[in-house]
Amino acid sequence: MHFREAVPADYEDICKLVSNEHELYLVYPRGIYPFTVEQVKHLSETRKELTVAIDDAIVGFANLYDFKDKEKAFIGNVIIQKSSRGKGLGKQIIDHMVNAAFSKYGLGEVHISVFSDNVTALLLYSKLGFQPYSIEERQNYKTKRVALIHMKLARPS
Q1: What per-residue confidence (pLDDT) applies to 157?
Q2: Which residues neighbour 90 within 8 Å (Cβ) at sequence distance 6 or greater?
Q3: CA 152 – CA 125 distance, rounded (Å)
Q4: pLDDT band of 153, cuts 50, 70, 90
Q5: Which of 21, 76, 128, 136 lies at a CB distance of 3.0 to 4.6 Å from 148, suitable for a disulfide?
Q6: 3-state class of 17 per DSSP?
Q7: What is the pLDDT of residues 53-87, one digit of tens each?
Q8: What does the radius of gyration of the chain's CA atoms come to, in whole angstroms?
Q9: Cα(23)–Cα(66) distance, rounded to whole angstroms?
Q10: What whole-number distance in Å separates Cα of residue 132 and Cα of residue 140?
Q11: How much is the average pLDDT of 9-13?
Q12: Residues 127, 133, 138, CA angle at the centre, nearest 5°?
């Protein structure tokens, strides 16, 4: 497994990581299913550190957004290919993004947001040391009430 910057030639493969409307909502709530190259292109224009995880092919994607000076940024759009889940790739891509936030950008904190029904991600982020600090009420793609849990991880001293 290795990570590299996503390039426009990867956008179609990134779109294929999202297999249904529910997954897209969990990964990119403002996205419209099906996930398209145009939507990934928009992300590339508004976010930093677009990263693909590669294991013979693209099996994961994540990025950083909402930078506040040297203080903090959010990890976003984290997705692992369905057939590659449960193998530790989520942990690896989050570790990679955290390392980029702290070492490349010199941030003091990294934040991540996760919907309450995404139990696998919620438990992973908690296990990696992210602590919840806020809960926001949202509506999902079916207009059902859901909780968006905001979590953060401080830079090690």
Answers
A1: 87
A2: 60, 78, 80, 120, 121, 124
A3: 9
A4: very high
A5: 136
A6: coil
A7: 999 999 999 999 999 988 999 999 999 999 999 99
A8: 15
A9: 22
A10: 20
A11: 98
A12: 100
